[in-house]
Design brief:
Chain lengths: 419, 253
Amino acid sequence: MEDNRSKILSEVRGMVPALSGKMNGEPLVYLDNAATTQKPSQVLDFLSDAMVHSNANVHRSMYELSDRSTSLYEVAREKVRSFINAPGRENIIFTSGTTASINLVADTFCRRLKAGDEILIEGDSHHSNIVPWQLAAERNGAVVRVIPTDVMLGKGRSGRVAFEELDSMLSDRVKILALTHISNITGLVNPVGEIISKAHARGIPVLVDGAQGIVHEKVDVQAMDCDFYAFSAHKIYGATGVGILYGKTGMLESLPPYMGGGDMVETVTYQKTTYAQLPLRFEAGTPNFTGAASLSPALKFAEDLREGEVGKVLKDEEGRIISFMTEALSSDPDIEVYGTGENKAPIFTFNIKGVNAGDLAQLLDKMGVAVRSGLMCAEPLINSFGANSALRASFAPYNTLEEAQTFVKCLNRAKNMLL
Amino acid sequence: MTIKEIEQQIVEEFSIFDNWMDKYQYIIDLGKSMPVIDEAGKKDENLIKGCQSRVWLDCREEDGKLYFSADSDAIITKGIISLLIRVYDGHTPQEIIDSEIDFIDTIGLRQNLSPTRANGLVSMLKQIKLYALAFKEKDEEKAAAGDNGKYSIEEVQKNVIRALKQVFDPEIPVNVYDLGLIYEVKVGEDRSVFIKMTMTSPTCPMADDVVNDVNNAVSDAPGVKSVQIELTFEPEWDESRMSEEARLELGLM
């Protein structure tokens, strides 16, 4: 049993070269996966191979190289489609990241809003699911309202979004709901399916920020019934600079074009331009086609980590990491964890009383442990806990219990130095 | 000790430690032992921009030398500032401006900080030099104003007028100021005084005496560095230039 565990873990880790690297002379313990993940060899080899053998612009030329490139790009689109169980290729739009995906929807969808209309967002939102809505709302006098967390309501310290408030907030003025699948701070999994049913009962469409959700949950967009789902390739082992926007066909068709340029048009004259069919209508200009194509091996890797014996071992490992971290952090009376309770992904954000998070991160760096400190792009949420910075350790399926133990040991050493 | 010598001392201290955890421990201990700055010193204007953690830096001058106090909510940052303060404390603004410190690189501090903190360090150094520049300018102004720098220009102006009211016209029992003989009193940045005045008549035989009296009285006025008097008859003096008191005194009202 233990033999099997270590065998599978070392096999998985062996596929990701960065994990056996060093930082400041110490073996790397990479716990900043909520920011970005390390890449498996399959992705690295694919990228270099694609650059050598299939580098030509997509959807444009007649020669074989371009065909190969276009094919890799469209195969990746199909891979994404099947990974999230979208109905068709027209539902998968490549963007430059989760942020770009949300901006696309916020900008185009909100053009139909009037003064006094409302956009609902969550109290645990990442800046990229706050600011695009504020920008869009400003244009026509719409209002962004926040579904608060228990902390914001003064009713608790868990950091869970108080969705019971939603019933009183949903009204005819609400035109769209922007949810967070899993918070990048608290790691808490939001009951998006339930909320979506409630919103749909009132005819309100829902966007889900899946930047973290796509990594830790099995996402089936049809079962979830969301209208939009946004995520990034680089957080799920793919290349940086590539994002995905899933949208229901009817919803995407109802949106006006976003960026104008090549590839998004059907015919162009100086008098009138007609636009391409979905999904190309929203892919103006040369996309990051090599990066997008890397989603094929990246999502294959993600699937491999979820399936069969490997999937079982990694799921068990994640459970052990969560129990160990929860126990270790909550047993220290000086530590407050931001995000507690059931249904939590292995993302741990916290502060040690009297110790600056930046100081901790600086010392952990010297011990080979990579973690984030600061506001993690969620200033309102961090502030709601009465803090202006925090430390975050976020795990991926390739992390081990031993790494969690090393982290806690190093954390205690840093704490003792600083206190 | 000169700035260079203090730097050398710090470099020697750090050379004892052979790994960065020990160096950090030393920096942390420096941060902990740094005197705390009171809440009043944590003014927003003392906050250094460009630091990820909040850093306050204050500066005062004593006998021509600068002394710094600082605080931060991050202890490593505080330890680093304490090193900077140790290097710069008790030096003149000019010495600080001229200094090119390199101990931060020599002990490897800059390379061993996260990029955001390394930027913060640059911001701190910049702020220290800005303080030095500001105090240097202030000092130069004071020097230009001589010992009389303690009087403001307005105070000197008042003192000059008070002195002018003590000088009387030899023929009319009214002081030269209320008589309206003084056309202009100008006090310069350096507290030098310029006076433009006239006489009741171009043929006044006592003109030289009056100018002398004015010169002596104004020279003795507190805060005055030097006096320059210009005698003019353009425009010509007439009775309308007298103050109400003067006219009352002379029974003209």
